[in-house]
Write a structure and sequence with these properties.
By secondary structure, the chain is of the alpha/beta class. The protein has eleven helices and 18 strands. Pfam families: ADH_N, ADH_zinc_N.
């Protein structure tokens, strides 16, 4: 099979022929149809998040089950599926408590070493050299993942429209539902209207937020945010964004501000735009070692809540999201701004690095 192989930080990915991967117990193989281009992959490509090489990135996968490992009962060959980027082991202390977004084995094996939970990869070069996996390694024609991260796509849903549900949409849902628990009538700011930000805007509307204020530096991204449900927009390249948000909310600020980029500047906007007692939810993944400032006295006096959110709880939340898609209440395809062929995979990430991608870009693998 062909795969886009990451060989070194700041070097272009190379399309290589790897041996076909096969599932072991509790796993499935997926013939990949499309894979979303995520900013977290970009951090790895640039060396901002340490990860072993050679490796295959890509964790927003839509495809068809092509092989089922021993012990898998809920999926069959031929099933159309999407994957969650968090691959819960299902047995560690955190998974047992329902905290799949904190799965111990996921971070220790996959994010730490590029392995699945037997301590091995499923990807190899023809000479036998191991190739490490970032999640399931979806920038390839075939990938292997634990069955706990594969979810059948409902009938009538176009498979290549929903790849991003497994990361950007799931991440947004986790932030809204579990970190902030947004309620009907809440006012929300989404700072950075990229892939995750676009999903936050769509879902905040679904959750019943009375105001959804999108903040970005690009006019085309703000226009796209309005089409996805943002009620107001603020261009932070032109005005003091936090002050503008307070003005738009009658001087009080928003109930919840989501930081969706992983950037010191956008964190500052989110921090300064919430009402007393408000919530600042950090969703964007920053390069390792990034630090932001806040005044402890201000946090105490204003009772600010600063929270982190990483993904969601796949086995609980992915069926909910797919049901919303099937009912037409969530349209991830509306956030897709461009599709790339597999041979253009590096172009997709170069455009993302230049800040040119509105919403989500998708790589059509086959």
């Amino acid at each position: 099979m062909r795969a886009a192989v990451h060989t070194a930080p700041n070097e272009p990915m190379r399309i290589e022929d790897l041996t076909d991967p096969h599932p072991k117990a509790g796993e499935v193989a997926i013939d990949v149809r499309s894979c979303g281009a995520c900013h977290t992959d970009l951090h790895v490509l640039k060396g901002e998040l340490p990860f072993p090489t050679p490796s295959v990135l890509g964790h927003e996968v839509a495809g068809v089950i092509s092989e089922v490992g021993p012990g898998v009962a809920n999926l069959r060959v031929g099933d159309p599926v999407i994957t969650s980027f968090i691959m819960p082991c299902g047995t560690c202390a955190q998974c047992s408590r329902g905290n799949e977004d904190l799965c111990v084995d996921f971070f220790a094996y996959n994010r730490g070493k590029g392995q699945l939970y037997d301590g091995e990869t499923r990807l190899f070069r023809p000479d036998g050299e191991p190739v490490w996996m970032y999640s399931m390694g979806g920038l390839s024609e075939r990938c292997v993942t634990p069955a706990t991260s594969a979810y059948r796509v409902p009938e009538g849903v176009e498979l290549t429209d929903v790849a991003s549900v497994g990361c950007s949409t799931m991440t947004a849902y986790g932030a809204l539902r579990h970190a902030a628990n947004v309620q009907v009538g809440d006012t929300v700011a989404v700072v950075a209207a990229g892939g995750v930000g676009s999903a936050l805007i769509q879902l905040a509307t679904t959750f019943g937020a009375s105001e959804v204020i999108a903040v970005d530096v690009a006019t085309d991204k703000l226009a796209a945010a309005r089409s996805l449900g943002a009620t107001r927009t603020v261009n932070s390249a032109e005005v003091d964004a936090a002050e503008a948000i307070r003005d738009l909310t009658g001087g009080r600020g928003v109930d919840v501000a989501f930081e969706a980029l992983g950037n010191v500047t956008t964190f500052g906007i989110a921090r300064d735009s919430v009402v007393e007692g408000g919530q600042v939810v950090i969703v964007g993944i920053a390069p390792r070692g990034t630090s932001a400032e806040f005044d402890l006295a201000t946090i105490a006096r204003r009772k600010l809540q600063i929270k982190g959110s990483y993904g969601a709880k796949p086995r609980r939340d992915m069926p909910v999201l797919l049901d919303l898609v099937a009912k037409g209440k969530l349209r991830p395809q509306d956030a897709i701004s461009r599709r790339y062929s597999f041979d253009e995979v590096q172009d997709a990430y170069d455009a993302l690095n230049r800040g040119e991608t509105r919403g989500r870009a998708v790589v059509d693998v086959s």
